[in-house]
Structures are given as C-alpha cells and as structure tokens.
Design a protein that fits this description.
Shape: elongated
CATH superfamily of the largest domain: Endonuclease Chain A
Number of helices: 14
Structural class: alpha+beta
CATH class of the largest domain: Alpha Beta
CATH architecture of the largest domain: 2-Layer Sandwich
Radius of gyration: 34 Å
Distance between the termini: 80 Å
Length: 340
C-alpha cells in the first residue's frame, strides 16, 4: 500500500486510483512490473510479469486473463510501454520515464475533463442566476391550477436579484401613462452595472412610461467611484441618448436631491414598490398594493415631495457643478459636453 497521503491526493486528482483500504489492481500490477524490471530497466515478457504477480500475491488466485485486463489500461494510459509487435515478442517496460509520460497524459485528460465540467457548471450557473423565483412561482401555480396568482411581497437579496425583480415587475411591463419612480440615495451597491440598469429605465421611457429618477447629490462628486465602476464611454452614449429622447418629447428626467438621505426605492405608479432595507449587503423588500397600500402611498408621496424640490441634472450649469464640488467630474464633463 502507498501510505504517502500527499502522493495519494495527487494521484487521485489525476483519476489514478491507488486504493484506500486495499491496494488497487492497477497499483498491484504496476508495482510488480517496476520491481521485476531491474536497474537499468529490462523489458519483460507477459509470462515473466504474470509469474511475478502471482509470487507477489501468493494468497490470491490471479488468472492470466485478470492480469491482461489490468495491464491493458496501464498501457493505454502510457504508464507501461510495449516493445515489439507480435504477441510472442511483446515486452513490457515501466520506469520513471514511462510513469512521467503516463501521468502527463492523465493530467491532460483531467484538465480537459475539468474544463468541460467548468463550462457545464458555468452554463448552469448562468441559467440559475437568471431565474426569477417570483415569476417561476407564478408559472408553477398556473401550470398546476390553471390560475394566475401574483406575489404580494418578497425579500430581495443582492443587486442582481433586485435587477431581475425590477425587470419583470417594473421596467418591462411599464406602458404609456405609467410613472416609474426611482430613488437612488445610496450609491455604493448600485454603481456597478449602473449603465445597464439605466438602459432598462430608458427602454421603459421609450415604451411610453414617464421615468422619474432621483439621485443623491454625492453622485455629482463621486469621481473615484464613477471612474472605477462605470464606463465613461458607455455612460456618455446613454446621456447622449437621453438628451435625444427628451428632445423628442419622451418623459425621462434625472434629478439631484440635496436633502437628507432617506431610503432607495423603485415604484410603478402606486401599485408596487421595491424598498432597499440595507446597503451592504444589499437587501430589499418587494411589495404590492394588496400587501400594504399605506406603505406604498407614503413612499410615493415622499418621493413626489423630494422630486419637486430636486434639480434636473440636464439643467445644471458649470456654476452649479462648482457649487456642489463636482467641477471637472465625470458627470459634469458628460452632461455639459452634450449642451455645448
């Protein structure tokens, strides 16, 4: 038995079974071939190998067919080399060189296998990550009962899950006459992917909804965070597109709220809302009017009050940016550049 744990772990990683409680058949035959070879190694016939195997294992009744079956995969793995072509002239060699060759081949096979497994796992991970369990629950109820039910409340954990909830319940269903109210007063968890998130709101505006996007004053001066987490070229293209939308009469506005921070939320009319509970890790609650109409009405009323006292970023001047300590910042350059 091999008792070196690190060696056993390494060989197991290469899918070479050495056995645990009992030595594997492959190791038994390989050990015998190595011992019978001599130094320097001398190729041995099958008869010599079989005889040595029997002598090494006197209590086991091992047939020639059994040794042949064990020897074949060792040869295929290149751990044992065959010399000679005809059956009578075949000789078998195993030494440090054949083992190195064989182990290199096993390593290559294992790496290829692991790459395939990783690709499969990544495919499954992407598929599972994109699932919205709220939508899935609705579909399951419909499939089982023929009736459609809508969740009235749920806990949302993480930015990605929040994005999915907003997509399926707000931005992709909003239509002409609807109002989307979005408050982003805590920047840190929402900066990454902010461009793609903004595009979903832009799509909703293109479909006729009015989008009111309220942001924290910090966004104007958050130079380091913006440079780190947002693509200036992509954001520049988005801002350019918003200017064109506004010129075409579509209702999309982003306003800066200079008051005291409250909480981040996204609402569709006064029918449903997502309220951010904690920033890090990001946790939110999604609820509908059926669950708590007073909470939603209060959230909408609070938003509208802040909205009226906020300043549109599309109307800010260079003097405004300087007053807010954001002169020369990323957004200042992008916004002012579109008006020059």
């Amino acid at each position: 038995m091999i008792d070196d744990e690190s060696l056993i772990d390494a060989l197991t990683a290469l899918a070479f079974n050495v056995g645990t409680d009992q030595e594997s058949r492959s190791v038994t035959v390989l050990r015998t071939i190595l011992k019978v070879q001599g130094d320097p190694p001398i190729p041995r016939t099958f008869a010599e190998i079989y005889e040595s195997v029997v002598n090494e294992n006197p209590d086991s009744k091992l047939s020639k067919a059994w040794v042949h079956r064990v020897l074949k995969p060792l040869i295929e793995a290149k751990l044992v080399r065959v010399e000679g072509q005809s059956t009578r002239r075949k000789r078998y060699v195993a030494d440090v060189n054949t083992l190195m060759t064989g182990l290199e081949q096993l390593k290559t096979y294992r790496l290829e296998e692991i790459d395939r497994q990783i690709a499969d796992l990544q495919t499954n991970l992407d598929k599972i990550t994109k699932l919205d369990c709220g939508v899935l629950a609705q579909q399951l109820v419909s499939a089982l009962t023929g009736k459609m039910q809508t969740p009235t409340t749920r806990i949302v954990r993480g930015v990605e899950e929040l994005d999915r909830v907003l997509k399926y319940n707000v931005t992709s269903v909003a239509k002409k006459g609807d109002i989307i109210r979005a408050t982003v007063l805590w920047l840190t968890p929402l900066l990454k992917g902010g461009e793609d998130r903004m595009m979903k709101f832009i799509d909703a505006a293109n479909n006729g909804a009015e989008v009111r996007y309220l942001v924290t004053l910090d966004i104007l001066s958050a130079q380091q965070m913006l440079d780190r987490d947002m693509d200036p070229d992509k954001m520049g293209g988005i801002i350019q597109g918003i200017f064109k939308m506004r010129e075409a009469g579509l209702k999309f506005d982003v306003r800066v709220f200079p008051g005291v921070r409250t909480y981040s939320q996204v609402s569709l009319n006064n029918q449903s809302t997502a309220l951010v509970i904690t920033e890090n890790p990001l946790t939110a609650t999604w609820l509908t009017r059926e669950f708590n109409p007073d909470l939603i009405d209060n959230a909408v009323t609070s938003f509208d009050e802040h909205w009226e006292s906020a300043i549109s970023v599309f109307d800010l001047t260079a003097e405004d940016f300087a007053k807010f300590g954001a002169a020369g910042g990323t957004l200042a350059r992008l916004l002012l550049g579109e008006r020059t």
